Amino acid sequence: MARRGSAATICRMKDSPVQDRPRVTSMARGLLATALSLLLAGCTSFDYALLRQHVIPTDANGRLVDIETDRALGDQEVEQLIAGLLADAETGVAAQALTGGKRELLIHVHGGLNPVTASLSTAQDALLRMRKDPSAPHPIFVTWPSGALSTYKDHLLYVRQGQRYPAALGWPTAPFILATDLLGSIALAPKTLLYQWLLDARVAGKVAFDLNLDRATADEEPLAAAAHRAGYHVKRGTYRRGCWGQASRFVAYWLTQPTKIVFQVLALNGLGQGAWEVMLHRTRHLFHGPDEFGLSSDERNDKAAAARHVAGQAKRLHAFFDELTKQTCRTDGHQGGCWEITLVGHSMGAIVLNEVLSTYPELPVKNLVYMAPACPVRDAQKVIVPFLQRHPHARFFLLTLHPTAEADEKYSLLPWYDLLPRGSLLEWIDNWYTTPPSAIDRTLGKWLNVIPAIWLFEEVRDRVYIKSFDTVDGSQPEKHGDFNSLDFWRPEFWWDATVTR
Asked: DSSP 3-state assignment of 406?
C-alpha cells in the first residue's frame, strides 16, 4: 500500500471498463473492454496526495475514513481532515482571486452504483481535467460507497427495517430475505414485464412513427413551449441517432429479449430494490449513522459511552458543513472575503445535497447544479424553492437527458448486444425500485416528470434553468452515468454561454 504523498495502483472490481484504450474498431474496443473488466477487474492508479486535498471519503456507515485504508477516523482525526481540506480550499480560492477570478468553491456528490474505486477514479479524473481549466473553481468531492454488490450484501446480511443488525442476527435471517426477494420478483413478474414493455413501446412509437403513446410524452412538448412563453428558462434537446444506429438498437433489443426477461424477473423488483433501499439508507448515514441510535453490547455497561451517546452525535459529514458555514464568510476579513459556493449533485447525490440545504439553510450557495437528480419532484417544493427564496442571488440548474434517450438507455459493453432492460436508473427507480404514490413523488431528474410540474418554480422562475441535452450520434450526455465525465463545473454546460458563474 502506498503511503501518503505517493501514487498507488489498486485492482478492484469496477462498474465501468478501463479507460484510455487504444483506438481500434468498435467491435475490438468492446471485446477489449469486456476482457479487461472481467479478467483484470480494472486497475486504477491513484494520486493520494492530490485526493487528500480534495476528497471527503466515507464508508457504508457514513463515517469519514482514511482514503487509503478505509479505516474509520476518530473525532480528532475528522477535525484534522476537515481543517486540512478547508485550508487547502482557502489557498485555492485565494489563488483564484489573485489572478482576477472569483473566490469559488465547488462541492460535488456522486450518485448510486459507484463502488469505492469508481468514485475515487471519477474524482481524480475530474480533478485532473479541472487543473487544466484556469476558470475552474476549487473542488471538494464527497465520496460514499454505493456499489450494487456491496449495497445488496448489506440488504441481505445486515440491514433490517432501517436498522443495522449484528452479524449474529443478520446472517441467520439472510435466507428469509433472499427467499422473499426471489419469490417476490417472480410474483411481481407480470407487472414488471408490463411496465418494461410499455416503456419500450413508447420509445418505439416515438422513434419510428413520432407517436405519443402515453400522456407524458404527449404533454411535455406543448407544456415546455408554454413554460418558455411564460418566462421560464427551459431548453428541450433534440433526438437523432441516425437510421442505421437506431436500427441496430432495434435489432439488439429483440435478440436479447430472453436475457432481459430473466433479469427483469429475478432482479428488477427483488434484488435490485433491496440494493436501492440500502443506497438510500447510506445517503442518510452521511449525516446520522446507525451508531447514533443505539449502544453496542460493550457500551451498555460503560457509563462514559452512554454519556457520550446522549451528549451528541459522532462527527460525520455534518462536521464539514459546520466548519464550512463558519469559514465561507468570516467577519475578520480573512483572506479577502466570502467564498461563492456551487453545489453539484449527480443522481442520488442530489438527495445528499437536499439534506445539506435543509440542515444549513443559511449556507451562502450561489449555484445549485442537479444532474439527473434521483430525488422526488416533491423535494423541489419542500427544499429547493424555499432555499432559493431565502437566497435571492442563488440559481438552480436542473440537467436531464433527452426523454427518449432516458427511456432507451442500454447497458452494454458490446455495441451490438445489450443484456439488461432498457431505461436509465431514474426509469428503474420510477417503475420498479419504488412505488410513487403520486406524480410529484417521481424522480425530479427526468424531463417528463419535471416539465408537467414546472409551476412549482413559479415564484423563482427567473433563477431556475431546466435543460434536456441533445442526443445525436456521438453526443454526450447520452446515458445517466455520463454527466460526471463531462465539464460539470462550467456554466455553459449548465445552460449556455450567456450564463456566467
From this structure: helix
